[in-house]
């Protein structure tokens, strides 16, 4: 399957002719693309040294000529054909394959782990030089691990695990042996969570990393992060598919790395869209599972460490602490296809992560939920939440999905569920309950300033007000009520779907799912199609509305991002007579610029029920196949 | 299976000769057995009127003669042969049967719902007159429902559901149509959560009640509750098997009702032993599932109601609010046998409660977990936590279980896991975070005083100090770490078990469970045998140590209570040379009085992994069968 489903119009031809950045770009770039430009200070030297050290880990034969770097700086996109044109054929071929195909090859021995790892390391090295998205590089040790895996295969005549030799990248929030974990904090460089003399420095691993390693995967590098994505080590992180736009946050480096195919798959973390937004902005697939499906043990913001003095912050746009578990952070996966996400989720659950992470639920991979999702499905559809109307590229992407699904025989009904604005208010109240004081504790370690993206949330550059337990409990009651209302609305769609018209289980049709096997209800919708955010990626500082995506975390539903098309200045023309429904809608609408957004990935969100990962991935496959078929790719 | 496994000694003979209360009792009874004895006040009139109203719901033909009541007041136990001697043979026969047998009879039509319900209502009426344990009586409507069920069966030639006509009781924390829910608050009488004019009064039902009803069950009455169990409506609640002792809290009325067999099964709620303690004290079986297995939606302390002004308090020994979900309240089941609990759990999960309660996990009943638990099992055993040594009856019960298991070929190894005292400290810090201010809001409704059992926790009879969000998060980090430590210790037992000696999955033996199917670990223990509390029931005011039982909620593991024997003054003689290890141990040891405790049920706790309800119930069956076989019943 292709990474992106392109619109079969002359737009794609135009795109090639228009890959250069318009001259306007320089005027609104808030930071130099590589490293912040503050006056010299000790923390800056530390950050600069870290950048130099990482760059030195790229072998000289993988260094790009300055000419190429310069050319890349002038381009709109450095992804797709640009990065591919720089690669040798073998690396290009291997890095273009999806996870299941690669794992079939390493399992049957037709592809060695070393060859595969080397191909991805090389492409990751190019990706970093073009896009500055790695906070840690581990190519050497990755190739060493690949060698061991090859030896294992030779001795045992079988792969070490279902992810034998799979080169992956991790958001720099996961601990990986031999590597820094900075979380974007200068004060965390060369330390264990800020403690430079800790014995655990460069030794500890997060549980999900241990599991991935036990399955045969190899972490080749760690990707940049923090709000929108910006930090004082690597600076503002640009979208590799449109360098005038943000790569999204907080897993932006991972989104970019997947767009550039610098690894076969990547891992991020999500508290309110931190996986989904970067996936959508960069035009890759992602899954944000429900809480308790993938391990989060020993992630810096997820568990207390004996020698860690305070809690850890990571996600954006809103700060939070690991002791806040009313809406917990989850690990999510970003990759080139639904099949890649599915293969990896199944492998991770095969490792029975509930044995060692007490927060993981003992729910194995349920093939029955997948197998049932064939035949006619019912989708709810929301292209406008009544608060902020998406820009034309997103509206077009949504309609493309709707048309393709209907053409494939599926049903699409309107979604008019509980207010997402209410969900966001609950989300903000819960995740800001501790005033995000921990962020400032970490900044103090090095003396670095708060990134400007966060400044508006923290007047005077100090922690916000702290709620007391009674106030927090009041919000949690709202959270619980919202979840019930959302669930009830979802169930009530059984009254609107064709599939739900009958009350008899046997007539529900082929999709027997968690939602349909009760016999007490007609069949409600299978999933909701809605925007991720109201823009195709975003001009820095111009994301005003997280409501479409943060709701998924509030109700703890599984959500997928499916890239659909690219913004096209020739067709995504805003209605000049549009009358915004409110202040935020106006700001968002005025922020649209067809010229700047041109070429930006436009994705949709596919939202499924709580803990229905298997079902939703099967539905995601249905959606992408409908798109492929309808648009004749 | 018998309700209790009696020790086959002459003690049981002695017991019959010694059923009368020793004269000492009056001197330490803090309250009259029926209703508090404060000076007259408006709230007292309301409570008295409620008591009269409830008593009036008992038909005159089911009223016990004053002579019987008087005799009962002088007896040690009013359960077992005493209450049975009062019943007609048919009622005695039917109320002596377990849930699966009863449901087979109502399903095949050999028993009508009306006959069954009438039998239990009659026995419940006797139970209340002897033990004052009902806060609401609904015999009339129960028999009406039974009639409808009989009509359904006649028309459709099948039962309405797997619980067709099952008469059950609910702790007075669940909303049931047509009934008061008081939570023990005088201010809640004739109201919806304190709001007397609410349209929802006597109309709303808690989700678990809706589910039970949909399965065919009939709620015949609601049982008394609150700390130890005491409230200002019914007063202090005595243990029906030893009227000098407490029935435990906070589901004490339900424990007593099960001991008296006034319903076929009962439901309680648990935040830190509130189901397990009453089950143990009254000598009945119970299961406290992990969070998310049974619905808690629309329980007064579990979800916000639109017209409810504040949050609700219910559990003891520690107060908490429904907005506190770091350690949430769970619903638990109390009944006459493991088979009864198992049958009901399976039926409830058959109703797919996750469809309508978003907090319920989509985990159906897993027969595979049960089927695997045959053959040799490994148990860990803890008879002393190093802090408070159990009284002789509990130590004897523990050893009886150990001996029986070993005789049946199972392995028993020592348990030396993470400190339960640490767990209790975490528990207390989390559940008291909001200062339990809500209790005082509810007391204000009527002007009733705080019950004396809670007074020591609230100096000056006002809410405790309130933590801020940062302080709460700090405790949650400890909670998360404790859970990891506990899990790791549990897994580490694979190094100590015979069954864990091999690292090969195929050699693990027959019990392939969640814990053993990974292939990465040897097989750890299957369950832990430990005390519930250090005494067999308890002399009022003398329960000093909740650590053995509250830990189960801290780690969110499933726990069963299995009654084993009865305290026996002729053999449970304390070692006069025992040197207490600390202050609490000393207080507890000194509180033991073989004469007073004589006849009190002595139970053990069987602790299983998180969300392993199916497995643990299968193990509970193994334990009870081992006891039956070894002690030759």
UniProtKB/TrEMBL annotation, chains A, B:
InterPro entries associated with the record: Amidase_dom (IPR023631), AS_sf (IPR036928)
Domain of life the protein comes from: Eukaryota
Stretch forming the signal peptide: 1-26
Domain Amidase: 116-617
Keywords of the record: Hydrolase, Signal
Pfam family, one: Amidase
Record bears the keyword Signal: yes
One MF annotation (Gene Ontology) recorded for this entry: hydrolase activity
The keyword Hydrolase appears for this protein: yes
Record family assignment: Belongs to the amidase family.
Protein name: Amidase signature domain-containing protein
Source species: Lasiosphaeris hirsuta
């Amino acid at each position: 399957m292709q990474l992106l489903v392109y619109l079969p119009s002359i737009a794609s031809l135009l795109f090639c002719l228009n890959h250069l950045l318009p001259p306007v770009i320089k005027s609104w770039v808030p930071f130099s693309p590589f490293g912040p430009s503050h006056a010299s200070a000790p923390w800056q030297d530390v950050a600069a040294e870290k950048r130099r050290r990482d760059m030195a880990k790229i072998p000289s034969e993988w260094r790009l000529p300055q000419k190429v770097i310069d050319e890349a700086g002038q381009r709109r996109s450095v992804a797709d054909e640009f990065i591919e044109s720089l690669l040798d054929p073998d690396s290009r071929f291997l890095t273009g394959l999806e996870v299941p195909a690669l794992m079939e090859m390493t399992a049957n021995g037709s592809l060695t782990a070393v060859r595969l790892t080397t191909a991805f390391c090389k492409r990751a090295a190019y990706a970093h030089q073009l896009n500055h998205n790695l906070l840690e590089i581990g190519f050497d040790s990755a190739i060493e691990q690949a060698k061991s895996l090859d030896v294992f295969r030779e001795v045992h005549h079988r792969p070490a695990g279902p992810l034998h030799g799979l080169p992956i990248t991790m958001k720099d929030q996961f601990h990986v042996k031999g590597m820094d974990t900075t979380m974007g904090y200068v004060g965390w460089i060369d330390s264990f969570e800020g403690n430079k003399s800790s014995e655990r420095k460069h030794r500890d691993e997060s549980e999900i990393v241990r599991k991935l390693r036990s399955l045969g995967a190899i972490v080749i590098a760690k990707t940049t992060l923090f709000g929108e994505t910006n930090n004082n080590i690597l600076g503002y992180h640009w979208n590799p598919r449109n360098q005038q736009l943000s790569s999204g946050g907080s897993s932006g480096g991972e989104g970019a790395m997947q767009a550039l195919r610098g690894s076969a798959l990547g891992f991020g973390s999500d508290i309110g869209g931190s996986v989904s937004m970067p996936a959508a902005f960069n035009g890759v697939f992602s899954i944000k599972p429900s809480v308790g499906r993938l391990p989060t043990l020993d992630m810096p913001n997820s568990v207390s460490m004996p020698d860690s003095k305070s809690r850890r912050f990571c996600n954006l746009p809103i700060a939070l602490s690991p002791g806040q578990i009313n809406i917990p952070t989850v690990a999510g996966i970003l990759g080139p296809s639904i099949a890649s996400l599915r293969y990896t989720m199944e492998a991770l659950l095969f490792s029975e992560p509930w044995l060692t992470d007490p927060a993981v639920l003992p729910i194995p991979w349920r093939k029955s939920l997948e197998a049932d999702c064939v035949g006619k499905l019912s989708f709810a559809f929301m292209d406008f939440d009544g608060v902020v109307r998406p820009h034309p590229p997103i509206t077009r992407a949504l309609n493309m999905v709707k048309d393709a699904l209907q053409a494939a025989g599926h049903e699409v009904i309107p979604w008019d569920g509980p207010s997402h604005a209410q969900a966001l208010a609950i989300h903000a109240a819960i995740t800001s309950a501790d005033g995000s004081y921990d962020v400032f504790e970490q900044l103090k370690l090095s003396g670095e300033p708060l990134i400007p993206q966060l400044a508006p949330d923290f007047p005077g550059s100090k922690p916000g007000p702290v709620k007391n337990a009674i106030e927090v409990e009041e919000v949690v009651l709202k959270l619980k009520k919202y979840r019930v209302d959302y669930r009830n609305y979802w169930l009530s769609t059984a009254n609107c779907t064709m599939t739900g018209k009958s009350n008899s289980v046997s007539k529900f049709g082929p999709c027997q799912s968690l939602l349909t096997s009760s016999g007490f209800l007609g069949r409600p919708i299978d999933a909701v199609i809605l925007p991720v955010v109201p823009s195709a990626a975003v001009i820095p500082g111009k994301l005003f509305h997280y409501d479409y995506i943060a709701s998924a975390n509030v109700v703890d539903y599984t959500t997928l991002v499916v890239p659909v098309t690219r913004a096209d200045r020739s067709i995504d023309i805003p209605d000049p007579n549009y009358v915004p429904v409110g202040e935020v809608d106006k700001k968002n609408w005025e922020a649209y610029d067809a010229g700047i957004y041109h070429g930006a990935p436009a994705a949709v969100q596919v939202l499924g029920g709580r803990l229905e990962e298997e079902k939703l991935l099967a539905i995601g496959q249905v959606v992408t196949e409908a798109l492929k078929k309808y648009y004749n790719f």
